[in-house]
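Weekly structure sync, notes
Attendees: PL (lead), two postdocs, one rotation student
Agenda item 3: pending single-chain targets
PL asked that the sequence for the first pending target be pasted directly into the notes so everyone works from the same version. It is reproduced below exactly as submitted, 258 residues in total.
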Amino acid sequence: MKRRGKITLRSVGTKAFTLIELTVTVSIISLLLCLLLPALGRARAAAKQTVCQSRLREWGLAFESYAAANDDYYPHTDGRDRTSSNPVTDADLADYYYGWVDMLPSQMGEIPWREYDYWNKPGKNTIFQCPAAKLAPDSYYKYRPQRTGYFSYTMNSCLELDENCWPPYDYEGQDWHMPSFLKITSARRPNRLILLFDQLLDPRKGYGGEGYDATAGKYCGSYPKAFSARHAKKPGLLGGNILYCDSHVEWKERAMAR
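Predicted structure, written out during the meeting:
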C-alpha cells in the first residue's frame, strides 16, 4: 500500500501579505463598518420603538378590560407617587389605592407598582417602561429616578380633574373648571383622546426644551405637554408614541426633539 505523505506548512507553501495589501484590507473593513454600524443602530432603534408600541397596546387592552368590569370607568390617573403617606380625602384614597399603575398590572401578569421596593422599581425590561427611555443622572436637581422609580409612560391627567389635580403650569385663568372624562363613555372621540404617552424624563430639557422640570418622569399622571420625542422615523425626525382611548397607538412627530 502506497503511503501518503504528511502535509506540512513547508509542503503547502505560504506567502505573507504585503503592507499595501494589509492597508487595503483594513480600509475595506473600516468602510464596511462605517456603512453597517448606522444601519445596525437604526435597526435597534426601530426594534425599541416596536416594543414600546406593543407595550402601550397591552396597556390599552388592560384599560379596556378594567373599564368593562367597572361600569366603563378607568382607574385613577395618579397613584402613590403623588399622594401623601396618610391619605385623608376621597381623592387621596382613590389615588392611593386605585391608581392605574397598581390596578392594571395584574391583568398582564405583573405585580402592582406599589409592591416594588426602593432601588428596585420597574425598569426598561418591564411593561411599565419604554425601552428607548433615557434617564438623567440621579443627582441632578435632587432627581433620583433610580431610587424612587420613574414613569416613561404617563396617563393623561386631563382624564381625571379632581381636587388633587392642578392647572397646567402656564395657565393664567382665575378659575380651573374642566369636566372629568374618567368614564370612557363620556369621551366624544375616543380615537383622538390621549390615554398614555411617552413622557419627558430628562429634567434638564424641561417643557419645550427651554427650562428644567424637576418632576420629569416622577408622576404616573401628567399633562400631554410633557410628551417626549425619543423615537426616530428617519434621521432628524423624532417623535413619540401615543396610546389613545380606543386602544390604538400612533407615532407623532414633535417639532422640538427631546
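Discussion points:
- Residues 93 and 221 are 16 Å apart (CA to CA).
- The chain is about 30% helix and 10% strand.
Action: rotation student to compare against the earlier draft before next sync.
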